[in-house]
Amino acid sequence: MAERLGVPPRGRIGAAALAAALALCAGVSGCAGSGAAAEDARPAGGPVRTVRQAADALRAAGTSQLRTSMEMATGGTRVTIRGEGAYDYRGQLGQLTVVLPQDPAGAAEHVPIVEILAPGALFMKNRGAGVPAGKWVRVATATLLDGNLVTGGATDPFVAAEVLRGTRTAAYVGRTRVAGIAVRHFQGTADLALAARGAGAADQGALRAAAKGFATADVPFDVYLDDQGRIRKLRQGFVFVNARRKGTVAVYATTLLFAFGTPVTVRLPQPADIYTGHVAEQ
User: How far apart are the C-alpha atoms of 235 and 87, rounded to whole Å?
Assistant: First the structure.
């Protein structure tokens, strides 16, 4: 069976990284969990307002380096996909190298997937599944049931921040440190439909798709903001319906941001380098 690039069949996440490594099943469900509503005078404007402004703080910062991890637990097995790269928040362009876990059977490690994150699109190299070597696969994020919050094996950091614009409840947990940096820890729940209404034009389509594709639009989160309001660590949870096993699959996306202001140059693939054929389902 094959799928046309950028138009995954409804009911299945169509991009490769997470599907290949974690065997995500047909059907998408939403996130479980809730955040405790709280009013804490210490963060200026209250926790909800403070968290909603995180995306604006990233845009003001300009750029950063990042590390990502995506964990999936199903059937008593937990696997993790890791990524590393850099991001330009004003241009909404980033590049990541995503490392898939070793096969349970002990086969050799997968070739790392190179991903370029762009407004409305995800580009992948080393995609496998019949894609010629050196060619890129392009997927329109608004066509994905999850809006590419988990499909690529790494959540676009700016889209993850845009999800926080939909924060409905939040509690200020307290002060702590992330990688030696003093931060404020917040815990709460965001609503994807609300986030889509408040997001920039480039991300509205992806967030609207996610709000419809998940069984619930609620996204529980833990976010750690530095004194400039920039995200230093963000953890978001998602639960998919596993149609094959008639159960659920929990997916947790964690993003670490650091080295703000680092020069970042991202070049989009040339049209001749983008594969336009069919990609085999994995």
Answer: 18
